[in-house]
Amino acid sequence: MPEFLEFRGVAKRFGAIQAVDDVSLEIRKGEFFSLLGPSGCGKTTMLRLAAGFEQPDAGRVFLDGRDITGLPPDKRKVNTIFQSYALFPHMTVRDNIGFGPAIARRPKAEIRTEVDRMLELIRMADQADKKPGQLSGGQKQRVAVARALVNKPDVLLLDEPLAALDLKLRQKMLIELDLIHDQVGITFLYVTHDQAEAMSLSDRIAVMNGGRIEQVGAPAEIYESPRTSFVAAFIGDTNFLEGRVRSCLEADYCRLAIDGLPEVVSFNDKGLRPDQPIYLSVRPEKIHISHDRPEDKPKRNFVPGVVEDVIYLGSNTKYWVRAGGRRIQALRQHDRYFLDEKPIRWQDECWIWWHADDGFMLDHFRRDDEALLAAPPQRVGD
Q1: Average pLDDT estimate for 153-164
Q2: Top CATH class, 3-229
Q3: Where in the chain is the domain with CATH 2.40.50.100?
Q4: Which residues make Cβ contacts (< 8 Å) with residue 375, sequence separation at least 6?
């Protein structure tokens, strides 16, 4: 599918801050695309460049093959939904939704038909005569979506639209947004710092950091195959293991020398050769934990250790294990729970293990990215 919304080498500086730094990005027609990253990474600036609220210092923005870089916001077929929703408090839901077409002087009968269609889409026909002050946060969000969509934009820009909602309502609205996108079929560009939102909604994600894009891909690709330490650390939790290639094996595997640990076998997707440095990411849910050393199996890595911290979370338990001078996090999913099973407790000796296919070599590693994983665990006593 060809690109629809395209950024070519765009850059934007605010004083001494380089908000966006030579970014090129292609978004496909009909795609639900998310810009994901921490505060200050440049994602909202990218959205404002698409909307026309900011002009790039360099580069161009294209929509459906047309250069829209110099066009003012009202001349672009894009609409934006902000965190505040910006509904008119003195107008009813119906009038809020119909405001754009009314300003455009579309026929009244056409406006009435389109507003009714939007009310059905957001399932708020019975709320049409209420004012924003009488609505819940989720209802306001749906009205804001309808008010944007009634203008029939080519692209809908959403700037952290769920940030003001509580957790339960955010989860509900994620489903609502996904359903609306499927029904209308236009391109959504969604800005968020919340990994769960981006992972659950998006066809593809661009992870941003320091004004640049670290990786673009489908949610599963971003999570399972992170290219950099920032992506690995920002999207969920991971363990970083640093070492060298000791030897190469057949079928694209290699043996790794990692200080303090027994020899580790890993899939060598980067084609590394002996004595080259490596940075390995292993997700906690890929690491198993038990009191006793399990049976040997091909390409299974075994590491002895001592449990330093335990957090019971209902559906799973997180363990921090001290092994070879480093802390390794393991996650045990409670797909089945036996009350008579001996639990793994704080200060227990244990074994952790993972399969060679469950580690992923990083293209780029920055020591500072390990700070993203620093979350003080709460110890569960013995």
Answers
A1: 88
A2: alpha beta
A3: 239-373
A4: none
pLDDT at 251: 76
Displacement of CA 192 from its chain's centroid (Å): 8
Tell me if the pTM is above 0.85.
yes
- In the sheet with 326-333, reading across from the earlier edge strand, the strands are 288-290, 349-355, 300-312, 316-323, 326-333
CB neighbours of 295 closer than 8 A, spacing ≥ 6? none
Tell me, what's the pLDDT at 381?
A: 38
Distance CA 107, CA 98 (A): 11
**Model confidence over 340-361: pLDDT tens digits?**
578 899 999 999 999 999 999 9
Distance from C-alpha of 215 to C-alpha of 231, rounded to nearest angstrom: 7
Q: Where in the chain is the domain with CATH 3.40.50.300?
A: 3-229
- pLDDT tens for 73-130 read 989 999 998 877 788 899 999 999 999 888 888 898 999 999 999 898 888 999 999 9
Count other Cβ atoms within 10 Å, centred on residue 378. Answer: 10
Q: Would you mind telling me the total number of residues written for the chain in this entry?
A: 382
Extract the runs of DSSP E, i.e. beta strands, from the chain. 3-14, 17-28, 32-36, 58-63, 66-67, 78-81, 155-159, 187-192, 204-209, 212-217, 239-248, 253-257, 264-267, 277-282, 288-290, 300-312, 316-323, 326-333, 349-355, 359-361
Specify whether the CB–CB gap between 332 and 319 falls below 8 A: yes
Q: Let me know if domain 239-373 sits in CATH 2.40.50.100.
A: yes
